[in-house]
TrEMBL record:
Gene Ontology MF term list: hydrolase activity
The organism's place on the tree of life at top rank: Bacteria
Keyword vocabulary terms for this entry: Hydrolase
Name of this chain's protein: Serine hydrolase domain-containing protein
Domain annotation Beta-lactamase-related: ranges: 32-335
PANTHER family the UniProt entry points to: D-ALANYL-D-ALANINE CARBOXYPEPTIDASE, D-ALANYL-D-ALANINE-CARBOXYPEPTIDASE/ENDOPEPTIDASE AMPH
Amino acid sequence: MSSDLGTDTGTHTPLDPGTARHLHHLLATEQVRGRLPSVAAGIVRRGALAWSDAIGTLDGRADGVAADTNTQYRMGSITKTFVAVAVLRLRDAGRLDLSDRFEDHVPGSRLGGATIAQLLSHGGGVQAETNGPWWERTPGGDWDALVASPVGQRFRAGRRFHYTNVGFAALGELVARAYGTDWFDVVRRDLLAPLGMTRTTTRPDGKAAQGLAVHPFADVLLAEPEHDAGAMAPAGQLWTTVGDLARWAAFAGGDTGGVLSGDTLAEMYEPHTLVDDPGQPWTAAHGLGWQLWNVDGTRCAGHGGSMPGFLAGLRVDVESGDGVVVLTNSTTGLGPVAPELLKAFVEREPLPPEPWHASGDPTVLDLVGTWHWGPSVSTARVVGEHLVLGEPGRARGSRFARVGADEWVGLDGYHTGEPLRVLRAADGIPTHLDLASFRFTRTPYDPAADVPGGVDDGGWR
């Protein structure tokens, strides 16, 4: 057993020893409950590893080498998030559009009808797995061999969510062709190196856990194979450590280290396809390469991972940036310990509220107060740099960002991306707001405010 109880590598308040003991107990209990040969985990806050721990041994035997937070495990499908970021960097560089068909960049396959955005969000209808032997347990061939197998679509592109490993093999090939090199060379150069993730590799390197299967009816182990998946590698090839994956969780929480803009990361977290399980409420979706969860109003992003012999999880609270990573060397058995660890951490170590200070813009005070859209009533406020009309998250309430003199753009809900213009009288006093063609006036249906359709000459009666 290895433990970094109370480790504090950032600038936040050091972890309370009681919290560390509780998190250790949760992880140790999960190791026993799931019969996991070893399990390692970390909690991230404000871009730093606030807590980490590891339980068990690399080969699952009592006298084996103890796991620690520098032990490599396969991250499985968390690999897809790296490929997705590489694709969005291409978009941000103007080298592709997310509405481009895959065929436009990688011709010759049966996946060409799907757009890049649909492949990123598992909405392209592409088959889930390969047509050959179980690719996760057998060495893979190159892209041409995968295309010739042949792989294709199960559903019309855009029809529904259908998780696809083949789709991310395709995106890895797109990245490779865009740069004229292997997809991982791009990830290593543009993402891993700038973020200091030196222990993330395509094959085990240094101290690494043995991938194991645990017999369902006996406490015995079977070694799982490890290999190069070839063209399927972008779907789940990477190995990593708690320390490295914690840095990626910090990235996911907003500390992107300059390799991706905050706006693009936020775009990746917009739900594109819902995970529709019959009889269940919608709580999960996929954005552009990231899994998304909405539990009791808390939005989280991340990804799970599984390969024979390994399971992994990464999850961050989109609002706070707090995150958790978990890695184990077992084919089955890992329960929902990642969200449980994060929940326990947040409950015991709540983020202190940021002190209030005056930050409003006094030049827009003439916009605050009561406005009317027809007979309905809305209140305008200035909060920081934003004009807030109504209550964001309720009805059509939204924040607005200034984009010019008396020009604003909506940031939330119905009015996201929609223009708001301030119309003024000759003396400069605002007479009405024009919000996506709707008129907001200081009094209900003010006849002096150029209300579309006019105001009945008889007035209110």
